[in-house]
């Protein structure tokens, strides 16, 4: 049997053969393993069956991920669109078996031995899964998946003509950061018009998503969807009350600092009042741009990771050798960036949409942080359940990696742009936190009041903006002034309650950055330990392992960001 840390050999991602899994055979095999696990006469038999079940499930997941990646690479590809519809059904169909196996693990006479070898976290995760896995919601999960795919197609199909060029949302970003204020304004107006044109469709999609999610919570006898959303995120250490306290720390500590930051930006740009289309332009002569596109940035990134550590060098060489990234934007390609994992090959995959701005470097190093953590955990952790942590930890991996890239900014941007690039990244990282918690509060408000109509939701977003983004001025654009800005964030549609994890993680990444400035070696060793730990511990225990403060504790946010505020002279 393939060991948990042993990977299948692979050529390149593009050459991976795709074959739809035989669901009949898979279910037959998983049920057989379930029966063997229940009948195991000793721990050794139970353990071997447990690992075999993980391997079979991981193989299915690998095929699913291959199809999912290829679907996002070209959302117009009818074949993979059809395969995603198949997997929406298939994943849901496997839930009864997964639930039964989870029950068997929890009730196993060898549970103590499992816990002794693999740790308590295995059972913590299993207990959470027991609350969310039910045959009652299979049809709802299929429906939700189909709605999410429809949303992706709606946004991916959006395009407009800007100054004679056909562009999508990402094609506009370069112009939205232009040193020419009129060009920025024109680009933002085009961007807003794209969303306004599809706003009715997005409102309808969101209405449907809210409805099906509320329906699932009721079927599972949970008090509300918020509870289900938190369980789906495997949040065992905290709940909405703790998150609310974190948001309040952001409002009292970070919002005033960002307000000063925006005042300084207005002075620097020479404008009386900062408008929404000015916020992405940090310097009057334009932001720092990378020295090239994918063909230039990838070799630089490879050299950087070879220099940071032997582990990161080996990791990025592996990615390059096996073609495990797709970075350039193109028509029909899904929006955004992500990192995912191919279990069979112990391989991460990085997806992005380059647009010749500093975001290319930020996204590449961000997703590479995810990829490195996954690559490392796949070679350190003995079971599939621990190959990834919960997202508030996973985002520490990614955001901290962005800060580890600071000494190499000269390579990405040229020596003359280093200061601009670092200031822009650090200030933007701080300035983004209020927006991150705005999205979180918006989602809490929506699911607390699921009967709100589209107009009411926009009013709620407008109210939240005034609390967390008081500097925001939409310059008379009614669609945005009335609260339409919320719908530009795909996480609201696809990943409920995820977005605050970026804020929680950024606070911890700032703490790591403070340690980098004092002792780079110590910071890296703690970071590497966090990556190697994967999801083997709970959130709080992983923070303690990395010697980080818990963001919910009073004063933790102020301690983490104090040095950043000082460095930015706020």
What's the short story on this structure?
By secondary structure, the protein is mainly alpha-helical. The protein is built from 24 helices and 5 strands.
What does the secondary structure layout of this molecule look like, with pairings?
Layout: H1 23-38, H2 43-73, H3 78-93, H4 95-106, H5 111-118, H6 121-132, H7 138-156, E1 160-162, E2 165-167, H8 169-176, H9 181-219, H10 225-232, H11 240-269, H12 294-308, H13 310-321, E3 325-328, E4 338-342, E5 347-354, H14 358-378, H15 391-404, H16 409-413, H17 418-448, H18 454-468, H19 478-481, H20 490-494, H21 500-518, H22 520-533, H23 539-545, H24 556-567
Helix pairs in contact: 1-2, 1-4, 2-3, 3-7, 4-6, 7-9, 8-9, 11-17, 11-24, 12-13, 13-14, 14-15, 14-22, 15-21, 17-18, 17-21, 21-22, 21-24
Element pattern in H and E: HHHHHHHEEHHHHHHEEEHHHHHHHHHHH
Class from secondary-structure proportions: mainly alpha
Q: What strand order characterises the main sheet? A: 3-5-4
- Which stretches of 5+ consecutive residues score pLDDT under 50? 1-5
Query: On the 0-100 scale, what is the average pLDDT?
Result: 95
If you compute it from the alpha carbons, what radius of gyration comes out, rounded to the nearest whole angstrom? 23 Å
Task: Tell me the major beta sheet.
Answer: 3 strands, mixed
Question: What oligomeric state do the depicted chains represent?
Answer: single chain
